[in-house]
Each structure stands twice: as structure tokens, then as C-alpha cells.
Amino acid sequence: MVNPRREFRGRHPLTAATLSAILPGFGHFGYNNRRAYALIITSVGAMAAVLAYVSTRSATTLLIWGVSPFRLRLVIAGAVVLLIVRIAVAVDVYMTVSRMRLLKDQGARRVWSVARVVVLFAIVLVPHLLVVRYAAAQLHLLSRVFAAAETPAATPSPAAVVTVPPAAAVVPETPQAPDPSPLVIAAPTDTALPRTWDGAERLTIALLGGDGGFDRVGVRTDTIIVVSIDVDTGGAAAFNVPRNWRHLTFPDGTPAALLWPDGYPEIANAIYGLGQRSPEVFPDVEDPSGHAIKSALAQLTGLPIQYYVLIDMQGLVRAIDLFGGIDIHVTESINDRIRPISEGGPLIDIVVEPGEHHFDGLTALGYVRSRRGSSDYHRMTRQRCVVEALIDQNSPLEILLRYPSLTDIVSGHVQTDIPLDRLDELLALSRSVDTSTIVTVNFIPPEFPRGSAPIAKVRAAVAQALLGSAEEANASLADSCQAPE
Fold this sequence. Notes:
By secondary structure, the chain is α+β, with helices and mostly antiparallel strands. Helix content is 45%, strand content 13%. The protein folds into two domains: 4-145, no CATH class; 151-162 and 195-485, 3-Layer(aba) Sandwich (Aminopeptidase).
């Protein structure tokens, strides 16, 4: 029979503990082979089952898990339980081997042994802490940003609703002569009903860039983009609405329409703040500001608008600085000074010439906000270019490494009425959208005039864009980051 003490004479307890911490049971060989085999079979079997399950899930499913609070809490609980198991197994083999070797850890030798155990526990602890930290950051983001319950969609007046006839509705011409071939009844090809979002064929979201500040009352939405997605096909269109259009109307019969029958006299970027200043005009809703801008944009475009997302400028600055800035191709000369975005903050001097530039957060903000020597329409293009650069110039790995900090920025600077319990549906829908085929329309001169919003013309352009005929809708599409002429 093998003497266990002699067997372990050349192995240090820390080595055995490390082996069993890496793979439970691996360090137990020679001491208790039954326990070693049981631990290894259990741990390897569990890991194989988890890997097999995850590897057979689609990328969409894995992403959906990331927006499920229940699954995130399950991940945290699993990480904690696994950590306890690994520590317990490592401690078990360490104490056992120490007793079998009859080590006499006294004085400096005991201190050194304790230090090595601490290092071992740190190595075991770090990956579990990372998992818990990332999952907790995601939970914090979801709870801070997304709504707890469904909010009412803003629906335009019935006469203003844009409808797109489906291609399948086209009836072929009847042949002039009868077909002499035998009559064949074809089996139905697909009886599945088209997918909808609560009965609607399209999901439409208003994306807003807020220009609030310490020296201003309320929030002005200087960036207004309406994104509409065909729920069944994934086809999408984006409409950039000028901030300075006036007389946007509200759906018939609403208190706002009765108060301003000819449209709200202020410019479009003040409508969100209108909900903050006069919530009584938008009764029976939890978010008067969001409902105000959704209602006005629904009436303008003829599209029911289900949700909105608002990002303020300070969040954009922090996000750009988090990733070390962005590279921008500038197409126009800009020399301007922008006032501070925070109390006691510096003035933003933006002096650039056409060419390649690297911008930090404040410089990028000055670039998108400047109107000196240019116009709101130029600024609309610059805003889109900055957002695209921030997304395109950072790899998934870079985003992952900075994700906890990014969630802090997003949770503090993003507001939306998208309900938390529908994020999985929204994420699945977004995966079906081909971003390279999105029709993007800028409502800019000369096709669309300044001043009062040309509502009838906008609705006609929206209808054309949803049919995929963007060139007919607007001759000036924003398909590249070039300033409009």
C-alpha cells in the first residue's frame, strides 16, 4: 500500500490547492482518488454542458440574455456559488496536504505560506469579481434607463397616417385568352401572418440629442431623428428633422391641438421642454415631455411613434473621452466659441480646417454645435458623423474593456420610455435590420423650406422612403459624412 505521506513529500500544499482551484479535484490525486475523480467528473461535466448549451445558442439569443435582469442575476448567483466551491475545494486539499506533510509553519515560514494562500485566493477571486462587476453594471444600466412599464404610443390623426401598400397586394392582369392547360391548384406556400409590434406593421422610435445645460431651463432637442423599422422584413428608414422648423401640429382632439390649432409657434427643439413646462397640456401620461415630442413627430411624419430615446450632450462628451477621442474627416472650415456645458467649465474653442482631425469630447461637442458661418443643416450632418465615428472606431473588445464605465455614462445621460420587459423583442428586431440598406432622408433646403414645417410634403416623402424610393423622396440623402452644399 502506498504511504500517502511519502507520496506527498515532494508536493507543496499550495501546488495542490492551485491545481484544484483551476480544476476541482485535480490537486487531490494521490490523497483521495475517489474524491478527485468525483470532483473532476462533476466539474468537467458541468463545464461541458454549459459550453454545449451556450455554443448552440444564436448570437441574438446571447445578446438577449444580456438584457434580461433574471438571467443577469442568475449569472451573478452562479459566479458566487462557483467561487465558494473553488475556494472550498482549494482549502480542503491545502489543509489535508499540510497535515500529511507535517509542515511546521512557524515564524517567517508561516507568513510566507499565508502570503501564498492569499495570492492563490486572489487569482481565484479575480475572474468571478469581473463577472459579477459586469453583470451588476448591466443591471444598474437597465434599472436606471429603461421604463418599468409600457408607455402609450403617440398616434397621428387618422387622415395623417402614412400607409404603405404591400407588394403582395398587387393583382396580376387577367389573361386575354383562356389557358388550355389543366387546372392545377397550388398548395399554400406560407400561411404565417406577418410579424407586428402590438398590431402595428412598423416600430418607430424618436432619437433625440438633448442640449440642456446648467444655465438653461429645460432640455432642447437639437438633434431629432425618426427611425422607422418594418417589423416583418427589417427594412428601415431614418428621417432627420430640422430643429428650427416651426408650427409642428399635434393630433386632432388633443388638448395641445386645441390650444395651438395652427401648430406650436416655437421651434421644434422646444417641444420636449414644453412637456416639462406645461404637463397639463399632455394629461394622463407619466412622461409629458416624451409624449409631447412623440405626438408632434407622429403628426409631422404620419407614423405612430412608440418610443423615444434622449441623449444629452455631456454624455456624448464623456463617452468620446472614455474611448480616447475620435477621428473625423472635416469638410468645412469652422472657427467658433461654444459656451461651457457645466458650471465653471471652460469655453469650447473650435478652430478647424478641412482635413483629418482627432477630437476629444469637448472639441467634438464644439464641432457638432457650431453654427457660425454654417447652418443647422450642416450641423445635422456633423452630428451624425460624430456618432458614426464613435461607433465605428471602437472594436467590440475596446467596448467590453470599458463597459462598466460606459454603463455609468449611459445610465446618467440617457432617458427613454422603452419598457424593460420588451428589450429582448427590440434587440431581436434590431438584429434583423441591415444597416447598409437603411434609407436616410434629410429634410433640408431646397427640397424642404425653412420656417414652418411643410407637413404635407414631409408625409409624402416619408411614404416614398418607406417604399424604398429614397431618391424620389429627397434628392439629398445623407449617405456619407459630407457637409451638404
